[in-house]
Amino acid sequence: MGVASRYIFTGVNSITFTQKFGTADDCLAYLAAVKWEEGYTCRKCRCEKYIKGSKPHNRRCLRCKYDESPTAATSFDKLKFPILVAFHIAFSISTRKKGMSSIELSEEFGLRQKTCWEFRRKLQSVMGIREHEKLSGVIHTGTSTLGKGDDSPDVDGPAEISLAIENVPNGKVHASISGGSPIDMALFLSNYINHTESTIYANNWKGFAPEKKAFKELDHVSLLPTKDKKHTLMHIHIKNLKNWLYGIHHHFSKEHLQGYLNEYHFRHNAKSEMDIVFDKLIVRLVK
Ligand SMILES: [Zn+2]
Fold first, then answer.
1. Whether domain 131-253 has CATH 3.20.20.120
2. pTM assigned to the model
């Protein structure tokens, strides 16, 4: 059985977006198409046959009669506000260069700030780097401390982060909260870098050799010390990240920092595919 291709919203134009998504029905139709893109399987009994459900885009299992909505078991489940608003927030956060703060979202969409903040947390939780997006090529790695210094916002103590950046303009970046120890860095690298195709440069990274033995993937990697000059892209990136984090989000806690790192880098890493960035986010929120 062939899989029918679905409609994919492309572009970053908000007028086009508003024309395409004008009602809750438009959003539910989109979610249903994403959810059952590879075909239908009942969540309860794995049956693959269905009939129409109780609502327009629902599907009811032929065997166990489970009536499933397009939002069930997705990030859109049990929303406290209209799905149309959720789509517009997802569009704004994925396509605007700097995203939006919870205060801005609250003003623009007429929701309580806490409601916006909670929904944004859901978005951030799916925005992290995925298995197939591993970095490759010449990669620079390093650490930085957020939440320290005069320009820092109100934070519950400084947080150490590890970063890896593809050393080309608009190269992909991954950043993770870490303890900053060599073992943390080794774990970070073994998870997020395509080791057969990469050369890793590390800055001021002593005592790595024992960990390298523990992580088989790192055997292929030539780990070289890097002089500061070669780390320019990394430094610019960290500066931009801090400007965004400190300038737009005046308060953040260590507990939620990874979410903000995910959000920032989701947009950064989508620079070459901004056309489909909204769909990419929706797919992650559904599956
Ligand atoms: Zn069933």
1. no
2. 0.90
